[in-house]
Amino acid sequence: MTEASSSEAASNKAVGNQESIRETGPSGDAFHVFDTTLRDGAQREGINLTVADKLTIARYLDEFGVGFIEGGWPGANPRDTEFFARAQTELDLRHAQLVAFGATRRAGGSAAEDPQLAALVASGAPVVTLVAKSHDRHVELALRTTLEENLEMVRDSVRYLRAEGRRVFIDCEHFFDGYRANRDYALAVVRAAHEAGADVVVLCDTNGGTLPGELRAIVAEVLAETGARIGIHAQDDTGCAVANTLAAVDAGATHVQCTANGYGERVGNANLFPVVAALELKLDRRVLPAGRLAEMTRISHAIAEVVNLSPSTHQPYVGVSAFAHKAGLHASAIKVDPDLYQHIDPELVGNTMRMLVSDMAGRASVELKGKELGYDLSADRDLVGRVVARIKKQEKAGYSYEAADASFELLLRDEVKGSRERFFTVESWRAIVEQTPAGGAVNEATVKLWAKGERIVSTGEGNGPVDALDRALRTALERIYPQLAKLELVDYKVRILEGRHGTGSETRVLVDTSDGTREWSTVGVASNVIAASWQALDDAYTYGLLRAGVDPEA
Amino acid sequence: MTEASSSEAASNKAVGNQESIRETGPSGDAFHVFDTTLRDGAQREGINLTVADKLTIARYLDEFGVGFIEGGWPGANPRDTEFFARAQTELDLRHAQLVAFGATRRAGGSAAEDPQLAALVASGAPVVTLVAKSHDRHVELALRTTLEENLEMVRDSVRYLRAEGRRVFIDCEHFFDGYRANRDYALAVVRAAHEAGADVVVLCDTNGGTLPGELRAIVAEVLAETGARIGIHAQDDTGCAVANTLAAVDAGATHVQCTANGYGERVGNANLFPVVAALELKLDRRVLPAGRLAEMTRISHAIAEVVNLSPSTHQPYVGVSAFAHKAGLHASAIKVDPDLYQHIDPELVGNTMRMLVSDMAGRASVELKGKELGYDLSADRDLVGRVVARIKKQEKAGYSYEAADASFELLLRDEVKGSRERFFTVESWRAIVEQTPAGGAVNEATVKLWAKGERIVSTGEGNGPVDALDRALRTALERIYPQLAKLELVDYKVRILEGRHGTGSETRVLVDTSDGTREWSTVGVASNVIAASWQALDDAYTYGLLRAGVDPEA
């Protein structure tokens, strides 16, 4: 594998008048982890970042330890211009260098007079990535210029920015399609950029259609033909962006362009996190500062929060499901040696192993789950058998315990204690939803229950029937159990279990409840959404009171 | 690339007493597209399939044209046993063969007396996949037996099932980890299975930690060493499952195990859709019956609906964003030649190119949709503008018209006609859900409405409040509009739109209604599920009456 180094030392000096080049990781400048979440990642449908968002994400990326953060295209839109302006005073990057993105100068013009290139210099970023056409047909149809003029645009733009003291990377757009269409021309663009002083020539699979085998071969050929330092920018249209990035590195690329969580146009870009994890954990390359990999899960989720997308539960390495085990088959052996069933220790990336309870689970996973909750079940085979049998029966009826830890724990306690611990006994309840002639809506519920020997009748109103039922129940119980005042319903999910049966289907409700410090989930199943919700609420409050240390016998 | 064929012809005969082997695609038996959504895919956290769900998914997979559908583990849980029983009468597969999954016989026993193997035979499936340990440490720690006994378990189990007329595939669990740990033993397991009569030996990257370069090399070595027909089963823990599957095929594997939408334990399995698309479109292998690839997007989304997960918007090939372009810079070039900006023609996989952000795209798609529904809107720019504006406003409030064609058409008609066409005017409605002291449940609804100048008060009872409301509404209207008797609610879906707000969130309800020949979908959004359902029912019946040719003015 090629490790560019001597030419880099020279180029570092050239930008010394901007600011000193920092170490980008344990490999120094020899390997670049280049993040483009703020530029290419922001092209994802549904992402719309403010300047403040971009500054926050840049801080997270720097904390993670990437070497380069491409912040946007200054001059192309006011938001990106503002980002670079504020970055100078508001961003105190420790590891990363900020990169401005732009295009080669206009056809027929001169770089020195190109306002777009001037904006890149004015951004203050020490590094500039210039996008250049490398596919002959794109030069003719999109740029509407000659192949020779495009080469001159590359040379002129690179030389200009180098003279201005900038380090320059060239993104060769549509490189792999261009290489297939006109190999000589694609290589001529690489050589033009390299000879004009670009430090890295990045081969972009812009349309994302290249598979790893072919991509690896082309990267190796370009390296052999040109001697330029090569980077890779892969899009995920075939689902192979991570593999393509690793294939390029295997072929000798020493610069990888990625985005946090794989955000990007269409399907997305190569996901920074699995790329870095594979390099560090599987391919023995140290590309981050020591200790940063263990922050990966937290940083991935934090960035998802900033862009306002739910973190993908099934993302490699960092998803909450990435180390979750469900199969009963596996659970018995996981007890013996967890490493037999995980490809890495999840703590290396800041994640944790979780056991899920489902009807596929056997005795071993119930024992493990019990242990996680503080119940040692290993001595009582009958008890475990009863719990497994009851879970299977309940899940067949539509209950799902893998997302309802608290209901599972209550079920477990029932079996341990021999009967359900109850803080209250319900006599009846009723919910009414009404659309009035005047157009108003009424949601009202009444509960009749017994608690500590007392009969209580209480009515509540709410946004909907479940909300009204929740309020009636709280009103009835709060005088006797003031601990309930701290509890809040924070999420509520409904699923109709059997489709194709119209409104007569079974309904499953999941409720998440918080006491301000911890959350728990409960489940209810019934032929209607209100009755299912009632069950989940009953479990939620029973569990909350147990957690608060209230004794149901008292 | 190796194409096993002569040995397959022999094995086909062996199961001829079960049922004739069907063509699995244009490559016949030479290449297997093996789907395990119903078995391994169901291990995904959050998926909990009913038997009806499994039958529906099997039909979609068969329609897509996979060669094998692994349906579950009969005998291991009641649901899977029931699935195979019902499959015999309820599934009429045209392309696929049904596969039962199980494990090799118990250590120290005999295959002929193993109840688990007997259940596989009893399932009636013509093909059985047996999971076998191939990692020495797993044999010792998980199976707690000797390495030699494990080989005997493989031989004995395969021979038994072959003698029972089954075709047998062997899943070598943890193969790649095992190969690294004890190469000779891993190869011995492959040879034992092959020599005992297994048709395919599937190398499983069970923990998903292997990268494509190493995986490709190991597959090639196993092929060279054993001569067995090789399959691949890749998990996506490194984000490389698709690339790993393709790397194995490149090395000579002729059987790929995948799941729809990549569902599976932890991060998931190799995603069927990008694997098949790459094989067909990029690697020039015909692995599906002609014309099926163009159904891929629809089938991917339909399966997501059945498992009740939102289809991934950014899934390769089939995501709604997979061919979505931000307009602007390259718009003119895209007009000249769209193929410059997409890696394949999206129609090949049943998807479409979309232009984002542009108001023109919104207008264009409304015009197109109108045309599809029989309204020529091209002449009335104002009307189109009003419809676009109203859709934007409604979708912001939580409505979704993509899945609610009938509600969209009603909205369009409102704007065309100037006001909503009404068959009835509601004065008020009320739904009551009650849990009685005796433990019974009452679901009762009353509607008060006007139709053809008449005031009608009607009460209905049902399984739940929405069912009761539906019955009250039908009872009120059926005398006046007998056409309603033919309408049936066939599906009902609820989604809570904003999490983190407890039971006070906005609720979206989708209702599918049928008149016996066609189905339509309507949507309602409100702060409670009953009111949202009411809106969807109102749209459903209004649309149904319009479809039946009833004149609202009459």
TrEMBL record, chains A, B:
GO terms for biological process: isoleucine biosynthetic process; L-leucine biosynthetic process. One of its GO terms (molecular function) is 2-isopropylmalate synthase activity. CDD domains: DRE_TIM_LeuA3 (cd07941). Residues 1-11 have a biased composition (Low complexity). It catalyses: pyruvate + acetyl-CoA + H2O = (3R)-citramalate + CoA + H(+). Residues 1-29 are annotated as: Disordered. Keywords: Amino-acid biosynthesis, Branched-chain amino acid biosynthesis, Isoleucine biosynthesis, Transferase. Its EC number is 2.3.3.21. Residues 31-294 form the Pyruvate carboxyltransferase domain. Pathway: Amino-acid biosynthesis; L-isoleucine biosynthesis; 2-oxobutanoate from pyruvate: step 1/3. Belongs to the alpha-IPM synthase/homocitrate synthase family. This is Citramalate synthase. The lineage of its organism: Bacteria, Bacillati, Actinomycetota, Actinomycetes, Kitasatosporales.
